[in-house]
Write a structure and sequence with these properties.
Layout: E1 9-16, E2 28-35, E3 38-43, E4 53-56, E5 60-64, E6 66-71, H1 87-94, H2 105-121, E7 124-131, H3 139-152, E8 155-160, H4 174-177, H5 180-183, H6 194-208, E9 215-217, H7 229-242, E10 246-250, H8 254-264, H9 268-275, E11 282-286, H10 292-301, E12 304-307, H11 309-314, H12 322-327, E13 331-334, H13 347-357, H14 371-378, H15 380-385, E14 403-407, H16 419-426, E15 432-437, E16 440-444, E17 447-448, H17 453-478, H18 482-494
Parallel strand pairs: 1-4, 1-5, 6-7, 7-8, 8-9, 10-11, 11-12, 12-13
Antiparallel strand pairs: 1-2, 2-3, 5-14, 14-15, 15-16, 16-17
Helix pairs in contact: 2-3, 2-17, 3-6, 6-7, 8-18, 13-14, 13-16, 14-16
């Protein structure tokens, strides 16, 4: 999306939640001047600026746009489709092993656009999208996703996640559980090598990285147990070389926690460390079943974890030990995960759940997370996890103007006590009046300014049901694997892996089973 440079914008007298190093989550009153794509000034009073669009900030909260640190746009048409499935079974239907044709390119565009619409409407100005588009890697189709995000006006890190190990080899007990004739259904096809994926990524960087000044390409090996060492090492080199995240999934479920010792003789984090790929660029989605030794390794590496609080609960994965991760020095961000394992891309929902579930694990309430912790994860630390903290995540002079304005005269803020706590525990995004990305107002007075949203939604309602009917046929074909994957899940949950999940974030107390 290109066009004339926006006029300066002057927000007068707003309550500001900067989430910067000086103020953190402590509000103050100020004017904010936006010039071009950046914040030019934040001060108690700013003189009139010629040709500026002036916004009255009285009774309004200005804060950084939220960062959704992990989602999969490939799930966007599966909202409300599945429930009561652990990850290993849910994957059979949301990401069928017996695949059909790739989604038509127009639907690929509309699917990505729907992600952008839902995100912007709910105050998310930056997304990290790991979409799956098997069976082949296509620069043209990748460009379709970039085009949707460009047209919508959102900031995004985009990647097509990669797997190059057959699925049954990535799961414990599969050789003894899955009958030979069933396993044979998955035979055939070739897997991409690390060198070939690196060549593809270099072409993607050349074609799309930096598009519109707000879209980046990143690399995403799906998970360490799903990728060969040469692929993992190639991805690490690419991430370091281009200054982008190495975005992966690690230890989401107990089955995956069993996989490390069963397949590699060590935890998956220890395996990554032995490969030499634990570093600042690594962003790990989930990190639920990590040990204390794992967390020490992660903190020393300075990597990031994206906490998907709602998705982890819907899929029965568990509760990530956030307090212990933070204490170990790990950066923690928040993500919705895909719209199939969450059913919404509202990051405000994730903030509320994350603010509540970490009071469950133990009795030491001094260790519970507070609203300021959650807001940090949703803003500046979300930006750090995306390696975008120099541009976004806080309201600071010189940074990109990614911000949202909320009306504080709504029910969510009435009566007003503590703004940070209202945002985490009471707000759901309905108080948002304006969203700005890269200095451009993309949502104002309930209307997206960059696209014809009603037309997009109408086209989706008209065209997607036929595609979903075809997907239902794939679901029927893939149901053949469910009894065996259910048995793998059952066996894994019975394993003693030495982690007391009830203890969670809490330190040991007398009588605790550690």
């Amino acid at each position: 999306m290109t066009g004339p440079a926006p006029r300066p914008t002057l927000i007068r007298g707003a309550t500001v939640l900067a989430m910067d190093g000086a103020h953190g989550a402590e509000p103050f009153t100020a004017d904010i001047l936006v010039e071009g794509d950046r914040i030019a000034r934040i001060a108690a009073a700013i003189d009139d600026v010629p040709d500026a669009t002036v916004i009255d900030g009285a009774g309004r909260l200005a804060m950084p746009g939220l960062v959704n640190g992990h989602l999969h746009s490939s799930e966007q048409f599966f909202k409300g489709r599945y429930e009561r499935m652990p990850l290993e079974i849910w994957l059979l239907y949301a990401y069928p092993l017996l695949m059909g044709p790739q989604i038509p390119e127009r639907l690929l565009y509309l699917r990505s656009m729907l992600v952008a619409i839902e995100s912007l409407r709910n105050g998310v100005t930056t997304i990290c999208d790991c979409f799956f588009d098997p069976p082949v890697l296509s620069l043209e189709r990748l460009g379709t996703v970039f085009s949707a995000y460009d047209d919508a006006g959102i900031r995004a890190n985009v990647t097509n996640s990669i797997i190059n190990i057959p699925v049954l080899e990535t799961m414990p007990f599969s050789a003894e559980v899955v009958p030979r004739d069933v396993a044979a259904l998955l035979e055939g096809g070739t897997m991409v090598t690390g060198e070939a994926y690196a060549d593809y990524c270099e072409a993607a960087f050349a074609a799309y990285d930096g598009r519109a000044g707000r879209l980046r390409y990143m690399v995403s090996p799906s998970a360490p147990q799903r990728c060969t060492p040469d692929l993992l090492e190639a991805c690490s080199a690419l991430a370091l070389g281009h200054g982008v995240p190495f975005h992966t999934h690690v230890l989401e479920t107990k089955t995956q926690a069993v996989t490390g010792p069963e397949v590699f003789g060590k935890t998956l984090i220890a395996y990554m460390e032995d490969l030499g790929i634990l570093n600042r660029n690594v962003t790990i989605a989930h990190s639920v079943w990590v040990s204390d030794d794992d967390m020490a390794r992660m903190g020393e590496a300075g990597l990031s974890v994206v906490h998907n609080a709602i998705s982890n609960q819907k899929l029965g994965a568990g509760i990530a030990p956030l307090r212990r991760l933070l204490d170990a020095g790990v950066t923690v961000a928040l993500g919705t995960d895909g719209a199939s394992s969450n059913d919404t891309l509202r990051l405000f929902d994730v903030m509320r759940v994350a603010g509540l579930i970490h009071s469950v694990p133990g009795p030491d309430y001094g260790q519970w997370l507070g609203a300021a912790d959650i807001l940090k994860a949703a803003t500046i630390d979300g930006a750090r996890s995306a390696m975008l903290e120099a541009d976004t995540g806080s309201l600071e002079v010189g940074k990109k103007a990614d911000l949202i304005l909320l009306d504080m005269n709504t029910l969510a803020f009435t009566p007003l006590n503590d703004i940070a706590r209202h945002l985490v525990y009471a707000e759901n995004g309905s108080s948002i009046e304006m969203v700005m990305v890269d200095g451009a107002i993309v949502l104002q007075d309930g209307r997206l300014t960059t696209i014809d949203e009603p037309a997009v939604l109408a086209e989706i309602r008209e065209t997607v049901p036929a595609w979903l009917a075809e997907h239902a046929k794939l679901e029927e074909k893939n149901a053949v694997f469910e009894p065996y994957f259910a048995e793998i899940h059952r066996r894994a949950t019975m394993q003693d892996i030495g982690l007391n999940r009830y203890a969670g974030d809490a330190p040991p107390w007398p009588g605790a089973n550690r």
